[in-house]
Amino acid sequence: MSTNTASSPPQRAAAVTVAVLGFPTDSNSSHLRGPAKAPARIRLAMNDDGSNSFAESELDLATPGVFEDLGDVALREDESDLETIEAAIEAQLALGRRVLSLGGDHSITYPVVRAYALRYPGLCVVHVDAHPDLYPEFGGNRYSHACPFARILEDAGVESLTQIGIRTMSSPQREMADRHGVRVFGPSQLQEACSRLPGGPVYLSVDLDGLDPAFAPGVSHREPGGLSVRDVLDVLAKIPGNVVGCDVVELNPERDIQDMTATVAAKLSKEFIARMHADARRNEEVSF
Questions:
Q1: Domain for residue 90, yes or no?
Q2: Which residues constitute the domain of residue 249?
Q3: What is d(CA 242, CA 265) in angstroms, rounded to the nearest whole number?
Q4: CATH number at residue 194
C-alpha cells in the first residue's frame, strides 16, 4: 500500500473508490498532545510486513482502483484548519470518491461531516466512542475534541446521530443528546445498538478510546469497560445503509504499547476501506 505525503491532495483519476487523507492535528485536545503523530503511525502499521493487503471479505486492497493514500493535509493548528479540512474532503467527494480520514484528535470530524452532509442529503452518523463529545464548549473552546458532535448537530444538517460504547455521559452532554434525539448506547447495549443502526447514507466515526484499553491502550483518555475490536467490526458489518465515509481518530502514539493501538487502527482502516469500496460498487457511484 503506497503512501504520498503532500501539502494538499492532488487531483487523481476518478476511478479510485476511496481516498485516504491524514489530518495531523491535536491542537484541540483537552488533556494530552500526541494524536497529530497518528496518521503516520497508522500508515506504518497498514504497510507492516507482519500483515497483508487483504480485508476479511477477501478483497485485496492493493487492487488498482480500490484506494489511494493521498498523504497528510497541511494544517496550521489553528481555527483555519476547519475550512482546510472541509475543503480537502469536498475536493475528494467532488471526484465521486469516499474518504477515510485519519486523525488527529476528534475535532476533525466536525468539518469532515459538514462536507459530507452537503454531498449526501439525509446523512446519518454512527459514532463509536467512550465519550459522547457533545459539550457545548470545553475549556472555553467550542471546537475542542470534546465538542464535535454538538457542532455537527447544530449546523451540519445530519439526519441522525447514533452513539455506541458511551460510558462517560455527563449532564451537559445528556441535555444535548436529549434535545437533539441522539440514540446513545453503552457497551452492554451493543446488540440493541446494532439492531437500530440507520439506513441511507452513513458516516462512521471511530474514536479508538471507544474500545477497551486492553485492545487499544494508545489513547489519551483510557476508559476501561469498552468494546472489543470484533465489536466494532460487527457494528460496521451490521450497518444496513450505504457507508459513504469513515474516520479513525484519537490514536496517541506516545501512549501506545508496542504499536498495539496503531495495529488496531490499521485493521479498522482496512476494513473501512473494503466496506466503502463494496458499497460504492453496489451503488454504481464509481466508474471501473
A1: yes
A2: 18-282
A3: 22
A4: 3.40.800.10
